[in-house]
Amino acid sequence: MLDVLEASGADLAMSSFECAPLKRDYSLSGNAAIREAMLPAFFGYTFDDVRRWNAGGDLDARRDLGSVCRCAFRRAFVEAHSIRFDEGLRVYEDAPFLAECACFADRVVSMPDVLYDYVPGEAGNTFATTEPDRYYAYKFAALANRKAIASRAGFDVLQYFGASVVFSALELFRARRGFFRYAEDPVVARAFEEFPVSARHPVAALAVKICGVLARHACNRQRRGE
């Protein structure tokens, strides 16, 4: 990976690893192309992903596993943009770090070689995501992190993460785990308003409409200080 970084001059190199081959070629130049390819893949569903699903496609077609163990980073690039792990995230902390790199990288290269053998242990962080309190707390931390990344990089948070915000809200509503606290955020209310519903998925459409109304009311109450 070091050889690839040095030969290409890239900010980031990626490889496959055991159980998670790269789904696509990430040999990309230009920050706009890198954002469009990597942010939805590693750290969010977009409204376009949902539109493809509504048309009969695969919602997860662009998804990839955002683990930093498959990556090598040019240190000068990381330091120049002060990219750090968000210590407020106790699970899934890899993807936001990789997403922030994608927001500023000018060149990314990939290689099909399997260079890492990933073996999760029962006491590790991956299994901790099954703990309900920790899992649902992540929803709030992830929203704050996505907003922080968007603010730093200068784009609308819903551009790359809009559908993810709605999916998280629906999970919280179903589990009765702080939906109204989550829905008080104006970003959440706006995500429901812009979410593309379809008769192809009537149950999901109804859930989005109902939760969208509740989110709008929660946001309005928060604005009034109630």
Structure in a nutshell:
This protein has 226 residues and is of the alpha+beta class.
Give structural notes:
- With 226 residues, the protein is of the alpha+beta class.
- It has one domain.
- Helix content is 56%, strand content 8%.
- It has helices at 2-8, 31-43, 47-54, 75-80, 94-104, 125-128, 132-153, 158-175, 179-183, 186-194, 202-224; strands at 12-16, 28-29, 71-73, 107-114.
- The chain has a four-stranded mixed β-sheet with strand order 2-4-1-3, sandwiched between helices.
- Helix 2 packs antiparallel against helix 5, helix 7 (132-153) packs antiparallel against helix 8 and helix 10 (186-194) runs antiparallel to helix 11.
- The longest helix has 23 residues, at 202-224.
Name the descriptors.
globular
Domain module count = 1
Shape: globular
Q: What composes the largest sheet? A: 4 strands, mixed
Determine the structural class based on helices, strands and strand pairing: alpha+beta
Radius of gyration: 18 Å
| Mean pLDDT rating | 89
Strand order of the largest sheet: 2-4-1-3
The number of E-state strands comes to 4
Beta-strand share of residues: 5-15%
First-to-last CA distance: 54 Å
| Contiguous helical run count | 11
- In terms of per-residue confidence, which ranges show pLDDT below 50 for 5 or more consecutive residues? none
Residue share in helix: 55-70%
Question: What order do the helices and strands follow?
Answer: HEEHHEHHEHHHHHH
SSE map:
Blueprint: H1 2-8, E1 12-16, E2 28-29, H2 31-43, H3 47-54, E3 71-73, H4 75-80, H5 94-104, E4 107-114, H6 125-128, H7 132-153, H8 158-175, H9 179-183, H10 186-194, H11 202-224
Parallel strand pairs: 1-4
Antiparallel strand pairs: 1-3, 2-4
